[in-house]
Amino acid sequence: MTASTVGYGDYYPETVPGMLLGVFVIFTGLFLIGAIVGRITEQILKLKRSKGEGRLPYAKEDHYVLIGWSEEKSRATVEELLQSDPSRDVVLIDRLAHAPFSHDRFHYVQGDPTMFETLAKARVERSRNVIIFAPVGETDPLKADGQTLIIATSIEHYGRSANAAGRDIYTIVEIVKAAHEQNFAYANVDEFILSQQSTSHMMAKSSLHKGSSQLFMQLLSDSYGEDLREIAPREHWRTYGEAYEELKQEGANLIADRKDLGIIRKLDEPLPKEARLFIICDDSTYARIRDDK
Description:
By secondary structure, this protein is α/β, with parallel strands linked by helices. The chain has 9 helices and 9 strands. A 6-stranded parallel β-sheet has the order 3-2-1-4-5-6, sandwiched between helices.
């Protein structure tokens, strides 16, 4: 006889006192097992609820961190990152009551992005980079960029603190007004994206060169065949020309080293070991190039 039932091969009592004791043991066992199962279920539901409310800290690293949620820009960015980079998670920091997005590789942290406690919960110091979106609904460029600048400065200070062990945190910031760019440079922001100006430039280019918007969209999204990708220099490449020719034979176009798009005019120049090369190719070509180092 076990604490839950009487099974085949179990010993069982034959006397009345023994039977009464057996009934007591069985019912007590069922009660205890039910209580344990109920407690486990309660903890699972509590854990799930806490995760949905953004109360749980993130435990991994080399992830993408997004600050600020909007149904258009932020959602599209999250979906693009998850699709383009299946090996990394996306962590969102916002003050929403519940997670606005659901995915196995998406984690939500609720809190103030200017507070070290919130940045620590998102493991910002261990992230691949941090994207800071301009606040939604703020029409005044001064206030919008001011809020973004405070967040960027807080992240910079957090990176220098003992909590982050003095790590350099790569930040990408959306700016509303171009004149404010120099202020973000003082906060050591790595990249600036002008939200309104980017759209205006794309509209103007499309008007001047019909069909060019499709080219821009293809490079910006992973939904198309060809995409913009980053690779490290191979050890045997001595010049940009050697890298250009070898990549061309493999089906990729070398277009830039960091933000320098003039590689085609410097093919005979030495290729620095610390170069960050950007190419345009499809998924299969990129996989071959990445594996053949």
